[in-house]
Write a structure and sequence with these properties.
The chain is α+β, with helices and mostly antiparallel strands. Helix content is 25%, strand content 35%. The chain has a domain of 92 residues. It has three helices and eight strands, in the order βαβββββββαα. Strands 1, 2, 3, 4 and 5 form a five-stranded antiparallel beta sheet that branches. A three-stranded antiparallel beta sheet has the order 6-7-8, with no helix packed on it. Strand 7 and strand 8 form a beta hairpin.
Length: 170
Amino acid sequence: MKLRWNDYVIDQKQLAAIREQGSVAPIKIGTDVTLRVNGREFPHLQPSFTITPGMGPSDFVAARITLPEGQQYALGVKSVSVDSGTATFSLATRDTALLTVIRIPGIQVLWGGVYVMLLGAFLSYRRRARLATRPVPSARAGRRSTGYDAEEKGVVRDTADPAANAPKPV
């Protein structure tokens, strides 16, 4: 990308009215530039802005460029200094998105399944949250008998000897 400045674009009559009469009418200031992008030249682009004396720049107008490949650029002038002979430019890409709309028959059934799954997840979460807030039952009240007489009589079982732990015949 290469930018070559050619000249200023200023309405000389308005500029003379400002100098001679002290007019406060807005004046359009721009530049004439040539932009070279990927070997292709775009001559005499004229980005500009309007200056109102005492108020500053406004109404920025960018030069639009479209390449044959579809790439779009906007070249704008940010500031111009006539005293030093400099200008500040901005170059922005203007990419576009392509959207394709697809129509799928029966998609409502698929979305219905998604809604049912979300409802099930919500109900499961709510049930789990309620169970987590319930008090824990005591360990003794929740234990069931295994059928051993020793448990009923309060005898401690020996876990190391399986023969001692065998139930007594009735």
